[in-house]
Design goal:
Strand content of chain B: 5-15%
Mean pLDDT of chain B: 87
Shape of chain A: flat
Keywords (chain B): ATP-binding, Ligase, Mitochondrion, Nucleotide-binding, Protein biosynthesis
CATH architecture of one domain in chain B: Alpha-Beta Complex
Helix content of chain A: 25-40%
Number of strands of chain A: 2
GO molecular function, one term (chain B): ATP binding
CATH class of one domain in chain B: Alpha Beta
Structural class of chain B: alpha/beta
Distance between the termini of chain B: 5 Å
GO biological process, one term (chain A): mitochondrial translation
Largest sheet of chain B: 11 strands, mixed
Strand order of the largest sheet of chain A: 1-2
Largest interface: A-B, 57 and 72 residues
Pfam families (chain B): Amidase (PF01425)
Number of helices of chain A: 3
Strand order of the largest sheet of chain B: 1-3-2-4-6-5-10-11-9-7-8
Protein name (chain A): GATC amidotransferase
Number of strands of chain B: 11
Oligomer: heterodimer
């Protein structure tokens, strides 16, 4: 079903699982809630990215002001070898999770 | 007052620090603190004492005990955001605002409790448990509650602090510190401030650095300030505001710390009362207080007019979409590789990430990430995310129009009702609660405007109620000046806690003083 595909796609994108029917329902309610946005007439309105949009971003001088804290940063990682963070193999795709019991109605 | 006492030697920083630590221990049941940094705090207090003895304090904040919400990075101290994902994470650096406070000599007592990753409006959803409102244990609340057996009902009748900076609000309200940092994305500083009877300031977006504040919604987050009086808020603001090269969303304008004048004449002011803030669900008590406050200004000669912010009711929906979208992006950094929790699953990178995130995040966080990803899908981007951004502009424009029409400041309620008992609060889920509770505070975040919640009066149940002032961008001085005048007029009562009374002796008066400046 298209809806189940969507759910699997979302789980893969987010790398977070719905865990159970309640999670799916939560998403459903969230979408219904967000649909209320369609009531507002936004013709001719530009999207707003930031409240500071009228100000210019600045650039600073290209001088190194901090760094050299390798030891500090490595302290918090669980798996490391010398100065590398160690990850499990990356070219294995995420296994497909079981089909959910409920489906998303509509979009 | 405390600062003066420190200068005159009536009390020493270490004595002050120890008393605060003792009070933290005796109010442990409030669950306001996640981490108490006793050793470092005492060391800082000792350093401060040396400075006072030399007659060279760093400033008003030197030696003053403060606490910080647990989503600010603090070097050497565990920073968890009340989540399993960051349990055991010891920050390698101080957030800019924390550093600024320490540079002024403030004594950092510890990290306060919050909703997991600052998502929520009750401070009930963190992994360390909910925070209890100190007012649940006040004489004022106990007197008003009808109970058959005192001890039995006390356990089940306690009220929430509001959220998500509930721990910070409870800490300030119960006298364990003189000021606390929170964060405000949808009302997270002002909501608990109103419920706990303290001042909660949300500064203009771009005034205070967010470097080191674990981000929720990059375009709306700001560090918030919680204190017992408006003057204190101005002092703390003065020490942490200003441009930070490490945060490119801070404005470059020069920030001058200010002292608040004692306003005597409000006749030149124009106070706006937005009619849409008479939201469904607003308790009649708060409505009455709001009118009384408007009358207070009117009687003092100010111009009080009704204004309209027509898109107010969409701010929550808009927030819902933008927040979940930004959260989906911001939470992507938690993969277990560089820091934080890492799952034992080792089959592949992606399955490790997925397992780590499944184990580390609670339902609320995961729900928002998934919703956010949904709204950001190619087929939904235009209809949800871009649409929400357009609505955001409409909301911000509402405010611009009102302020341009000559209104100096807006007066609104902060919350729909006084604090509810925990048992009632948890009957609805997190998103529903946030939707209901954030409605009066969210729009200020949407538009990036400064807002402050000032404790106004006690409700019929003996719990605090606060009213909110929303000001013009970067006009914190005007906002706080008016708030200070209002504070003086309403004379909000001091909380009467039994624990505090037990430790009461002469010098402890300084502890209970409303202000430290």
């Amino acid at each position: 079903r298209a809806a189940a595909e969507l759910l699997a796609h979302l789980e893969r994108l987010a790398l977070v699982d719905f865990r159970d029917a309640e999670g799916v329902e939560r998403l459903q309610k969230a979408i219904q809630f967000a649909d209320r946005l369609q009531e507002v007439n936004t013709d001719g309105v530009e999207p707003m990215d930031s409240v500071l949009e009228d100000r210019c971003l600045y650039l600073r001088e290209d001088n190194v002001t901090e760094g050299n804290c390798t030891k500090e940063l490595l302290k918090n990682a669980r798996e490391k070898v010398e100065e590398y963070f160690v990850a499990p193999p990356g070219n294995i795709p995420l296994p497909k999770l079981d089909e959910q019991e409920t489906f998303l109605q509509g979009s | 007052q405390v600062s003066v006492a420190l200068k005159e030697g009536q009390v020493t920083p270490t004595q002050l620090c120890q008393r605060c630590l003792a009070l933290i221990r005796s109010t442990k049941f409030l669950n306001a603190y996640i981490t108490v940094a006793e050793e470092t705090a005492l060391k800082q207090a000792e350093e401060s004492e040396k400075r006072y003895r030399r007659g060279q304090p760093l400033g008003v904040l030197d030696g003053i005990p403060v606490s910080v919400k647990d989503n600010f990075n603090t070097a050497g101290i565990e920073t968890t955001c009340a989540s399993n994902m960051l349990k055991g994470y010891i920050s390698p650096y101080n957030a800019t605002v924390v550093q600024k406070l320490l540079d002024q000599g403030a004594v950092l007592l510890g990290k306060t409790n919050l909703d997991e990753f600052a998502m929520g409006s009750g401070s009930t959803d963190g992994v360390f448990g909910p925070v209890r409102n100190p007012w649940s244990y006040s004489r004022q609340y106990k007197e008003k509650s009808v109970s058959k057996s005192h001890s039995e009902d006390e356990e089940s009748n306690w009220v929430i602090t509001g959220g998500s900076s509930g721990g910070s609000a409870a800490a300030v309200s119960s006298f364990t510190c003189f000021a606390a940092l929170g964060s405000d994305t949808g009302g997270s500083t002002r909501n608990p401030a109103a419920h706990c009877g303290v001042v909660g300031l949300k500064p203009t977006y771009g005034l205070i650095s967010r470097h080191g504040l674990i981000p929720l919604v990059n375009s709306m987050d700001v560090p918030g300030i919680l204190t017992r009086c408006v003057d204190d808020a101005a002092v703390v603001l003065g020490s942490i505001a200003g441009h930070d090269p490490k945060d490119s969303t801070t404005i470059q304008d020069n920030f001058m710390p200010f002292e608040l004048p004692d306003l005597t004449d409000v006749s030149k002011l124009s106070i706006g009362i937005p009619k849409e803030y008479h939201a469904p669900g607003l308790s009649s008590e708060i409505l009455a207080l709001w009118s009384k406050a408007a009358d207070l200004f009117k009687d003092a000669g100010a111009k009080v007019i009704e204004v309209s912010l027509p898109h107010t009711r969409y701010s929550i929906v808009c927030y819902h979409v933008l927040c979940t979208a930004e959260v989906a992006s911001n939470m992507a950094r938690f993969d277990g590789l560089e820091y934080g929790h890492r799952s034992d699953m080792n089959e592949s990178t992606e399955s490790m990430y997925a397992a780590t995130r499944r184990e580390g995040f609670n339902d609320v966080v995961r729900g928002r990430i998934l919703s956010g990803n949904y709204f950001l899908l190619k087929q939904n981007y235009e209809n949800y995310f871009i649409k929400a951004q357009k609505v955001r502009r409409l909301i911000a424009n509402d405010f611009v129009k009102v302020f341009r029409s000559g209104v100096d400041i807006l007066l609104t309620p902060t919350t729909l009702s006084d604090a509810v008992p925990y048992m009632e609060f948890i009957k609805e889920d997190n998103r529903t609660r946030s939707t209901q509770d954030d409605i009066l505070t969210q729009a200020a975040n949407m538009a990036g405007l400064p807002a402050v919640s000032v404790p106004t009066a006690l409700s019929e149940k003996g719990l605090p109620v606060g009213l909110q002032f929303i000001g013009r961008s970067f006009q914190e001085k005007q906002l706080l000046t008016i708030a200070k005048w209002f504070e003086k007029q309403v004379k909000f009562p001091m909380i009467q806690l039994e624990e505090v009374k037990r430790l009461d002796h002469g010098v402890f008066q300084h502890q209970k003083s409303a202000s430290f400046s």
